[in-house]
Design a protein that fits this description.
Number of strands: 5
Helix content: 55-70%
Largest sheet: 5 strands, mixed
Order of helices and strands: HHHHHHHHHEHHEEHEE
Strand order of the largest sheet: 1-2-3-5-4
Mean pLDDT: 80
Low-confidence stretches: 1-16
Structural class: alpha+beta
CATH class of the domain at 273-406: Alpha Beta
Number of helices: 12
Strand content: 5-15%
Length: 407
């Protein structure tokens, strides 16, 4: 019988040793009862002394050899203790046959210390034969005694074997359960690690989107304004350059505020100070001033309904508009842009249309900005639609479920 290892405390110990205190109590109680009952059996001084001495030997063997075998599972102490156990039982039962009830604890200890079933069967057979011989000696070696003891010996052997097989099944099931628990704990740890990694990746993606939609676009504006200012200065135009420098300062301040907001939270600074409608119009005015493109903002729903939208949805709509304007700046060469915000069929939507060069859908792989927009919108349960035709502009529409906050 192999030892059962637990993934928690007591690893490397047989499953039954976790109830060792109970086995101690049963052994010492039965041994004490045997010694006490022997004094009522009128054994005589010599036989009583021999009986008591054998009890002491058995108790000492259990305390100093048996416990070592239980804890270490070493073969030599295990065999030594069980042989002493069988010998002591033969003496005790030969002197006082009523001691036969010690067979209960002896049979259990033999099986519990066995390495396999064959060993258990052999030692159980030795125990039954030894005890039967002691009983036969006590009865006077007659055939009548033999035939009266034989059924009891057979029953004892069968009970011992059944008991051993039951113990084997219990230990095997306990071992399988311990292995299953260990596998479940390992799977739980792996799942927790996977969830942690997924959370880290999601946080990185969200941070990347925020940086792309705010700081990166602000830096792009600063670069373009600086180039325009440099060109005007080279031509001697100081007034235009001053206006460009003022715009650069404003954009840099906004970027600084956005960076601080990213450190503290993910709510855009603009939305914390104004409504979504006001922020969209400011974005349109600044974009027009930087690029010369005519940008209009049209509301297809009352402004108070826009303000009632949850902050998270307003952020998605604002970032989508910013990304669409960034694409217009970089690729469209447009002269007009229309931003429309509306509500229909339980969904709020924002649409950005330009009259730029357009492109053939599918011929251009989406860059990080468009992918980030899709990821942000899909996290909110929405969709992104992009329609474009070469020479006829581009339309980007973002639709997300409309959930208004309680006021």
């Amino acid at each position: 019988m192999g030892s059962v290892q637990s993934s928690r405390g007591g690893a490397g110990q047989p499953v039954w040793t976790r109830t060792l205190i109970g086995w101690h109590i049963v052994f010492w109680v039965l041994l004490g009862m045997t010694l006490a009952l022997s004094f009522l059996g009128n054994l005589g001084a010599v036989r009583q002394a021999l009986f008591a001495g054998t009890v002491v030997v058995l108790g000492a063997a259990y305390q100093f050899i048996g416990l070592r075998a239980i804890r270490s599972r070493q073969a030599l102490p295990s065999y030594a203790y069980r042989l002493v156990l069988i010998a002591c039982l033969m003496v005790l039962i030969g002197i006082y046959p009523q001691s036969v009830f010690l067979m209960f604890i002896a049979s259990a200890q033999i099986w519990l210390l066995c390495a396999d079933i064959r060993e258990g069967v052999g030692l159980s057979l030795l125990l039954v034969l030894g005890v039967g011989t002691a009983q036969l000696w006590s009865a006077g070696w007659g055939w009548d005694a033999f035939w009266s003891i034989l059924p009891w010996m057979l029953v004892s052997l069968v009970v011992s074997l059944l008991f051993g097989i039951w113990i084997e099944k219990v230990i095997t099931q306990s071992q399988q359960r311990a292995e299953l628990i260990e596998q479940l704990e390992s799977a739980r740890d792996e799942l927790a690690e996977a969830h942690h990694s997924a959370g880290v990746m999601a946080e990185r993606e969200r941070m990347a989107r925020e940086i792309h939609d705010t700081l990166a676009q602000g830096m792009t504006s600063i670069v373009m304004l600086a180039q325009a200012a440099s060109a005007e200065l080279s031509q001697g135009g100081t007034d235009g350059a001053s206006a460009r420098l003022a715009a650069i300062e404003d954009t840099a301040r906004e970027n600084l505020a956005e960076a601080r907001a990213l450190v503290a939270a993910f709510t855009p600074v603009a939305l914390s100070e104004a409504t979504l409608t006001e922020v969209l119009r400011r974005q349109a005015e600044r974009f027009a001033a930087e690029t010369g493109v005519d940008v209009q903002v049209w509301l297809d729903l009352p402004d108070d309904e826009v303000a009632a939208l949850p902050q998270a949805q307003q952020v998605v709509l604002l970032r989508s508009a910013q990304e669409a304007l960034a694409n217009v700046r970089k690729h469209a060469a447009a002269t007009q842009v229309l931003i429309t915000l509306g509500l229909s069929d339980g969904r709020v939507w924002i649409e950005i249309c330009d009259d730029g060069t357009g492109f053939t859908p599918g011929s251009v792989s989406g860059g990080f900005g468009l992918n980030a927009m899709r990821g942000r919108v899909e996290e909110s349960g929405g969709t992104v639609e992009v329609e474009s035709t070469p020479g006829r502009g581009t339309r980007v529409q973002v639709l997300i479920p409309a959930v208004q906050e309680d006021v």
